Amino acid sequence: MTDVVRNALEIMGKGMLSIFIVIFILSLIVILLTKVTTTKNEPESEE
Amino acid sequence: MEFLISGIMAITWKQLVMYAVGALLIYLAIAKGFEPSLLLPMGLGAILVNIPLSGVINQTVDVLNTTTGTAETLTQHGIIQWLFETTIEASEALPILLFIGIGAMIDFGPLLSNPKMFLFGAAAQFGIFFTIVVAALLNFDLKDAASVGIIGAADGPTSILVSQQLKSSYVGPIAVAAYSYMALVPIVQPFAIKLVTTKKERLIRMEYNPKSVSRTTRLLFPIIVTFIAGLIAPQSVALVGFLMFGNLIRESGVLGSLSDTAQNVLPNLITLLLGITVSFSMKAEDFVKWQTLMIMGLGLVAFVMDSIGGVLFAKLLNLFLKKKINPMVGAAGISAFPMSARVIQKMGIKEDPTNHLLMHAISANVAGQIGSVVAGGVVINLVMQLLAK
After folding, report:
1. Is residue B53 one of the residues assigned to a domain?
2. pLDDT average, residue stretch B112-139
3. What is the spatial distance between Cα A30 and Cα B117, in angstroms, rounded to a whole number?
């Protein structure tokens, strides 16, 4: 296996992991924000 | 009379090929409606830059200085080369500025009300990395392999920006491949999805019960996304930041005319110039290579594996979920918005006319916009780190 292929596999592993970490953190933040900022009586709520 | 035919006599066979490529792109744009806003200018530009001694690219001319009697070399500056060097090579300004417009056009509401769809925006970037590995196996060097792989971001500006930042030799073919396959999503995605799903899986029903999204969430979201993405992948700050800048203008509610400009005039102006500027990288000596054909093939691999990655991730999640996800929705996690969402909706209706997957697909599709720009930044970051070793 050449160095380039080895590096490409490393990019694959780290790249997918990084994207999933960012996306996972963002989705958790959105869930938290939605819980905190949306109440039954909040007049600004919109779908 | 020789001066009249010297231009024709100077045409090389590679330039003839590029005239045919340019004509094909123009045909696809006009007759078939394939991404006309980019393919038409790229097609014409491909012809312009390949006319011998074309005035749209820099030409050096040896002239005799009649005062000193010595030969001098004069450079005549060409407009397309100047546009490329200034707006893409020096600063990547054109694709980055286009992101303001894209961000202003996006409504993150469906995604914010259904946050688990975020995950498909990550899963459907798999094709990028799979293609990087395949390109490496085909003897592309790392920066070119990464640049080819980013076609799988299914986003033209991201593809141009990443390939330019990595100083790839194949910016032209990569741009052509990215925009061509984006236009071919209605053909590529159904093929890829049917490869890895059963009819029973495609019939899974999904009800749409969105949670309400507050205005505060809509306002904080673009800021938080930029911050988080930037901390993990600093190279993505330009892409993500400008995307979210456009979105914040839209959501602020106090910048009506700026939002309107960002959604309409700005992207139109930039798109007007982007295609013809990118055509600078379609000079015959750079484009007519075996590698160009390989890049076209690898671009297809990227799009197919993006769709398969999203679908397989949905099937993986279904192992743990009581309310199953229709795996086709996973394929909508690519950045080709809104075409991919429409393709999934159409496929869902075809299997079951009462199963409307559109809003779920739109959520995943919008997540793909974020996932693709993060992927672009991550790829640049990782390649630079590896090349620096």
Report:
1. no
2. 94
3. 12
Q: Which positions in chain A have a beta carbon within 8 angstroms of at least one beta carbon in chain B? A: 2, 4-5, 7-12, 14-16, 18-27, 29-31, 33-34, 37-38, 42, 44-47
* Cβ atoms of B99 and B88 closer than 8 Å: no
Task: Give yes or no for residue B64 having a pLDDT over 80.
Answer: no
Please report whether residue B48 resides in a domain.
no
For residue B7, being part of any structural domain is answered with: no
Contact of B339 with B361, CB cutoff 8 Å:
no
Strand partners, B76: B59
User: Has the ipTM of the complex gone over 0.90?
Assistant: no
Nearest to A31 among B115, B128, B216 (CB): B115
Q: What angle do CA B50, B53, B59 make, to 5 degrees?
A: 115
DSSP lists the bridge partners of residue B73 as B62
Number of independent structural domains in chain B: 1
List CB contacts of B195: < 8 A, sequence separation 6 or more. Answer: B308
Q: Which of B44, B376, B253 is nearest to A18 (CA)?
A: B376
Encoding tokens for residue B131?
């293609």
Query: In a mutagenesis test of the A interface, which of B108, B130, B132, B316 is the best target, namely the one with the most A β-carbons within 10 Å?
Result: B132
Q: Is the pLDDT of residue B139 over 60?
A: yes
Query: Rounded CA gap, B20 and B22, in Å?
Result: 5
User: Is the confidence at residue A41, as pLDDT, over 50?
Assistant: no
pLDDT at site B61: 75
> Residue B88 class from Cβ within 10 Å (0-12 exposed, 13-18 middle, 19+ buried)?
buried
Domain that residue B154 falls in: 92-388
The reply to whether residue B212 touches residue A33, judged by beta carbons under 8 angstroms, is no
Predicted TM-score of the model (pTM): 0.86
Find out whether B112 and B217 touch, Cβ atoms under 8 Å.
yes
Residue B181 forms part of a structural domain:
yes
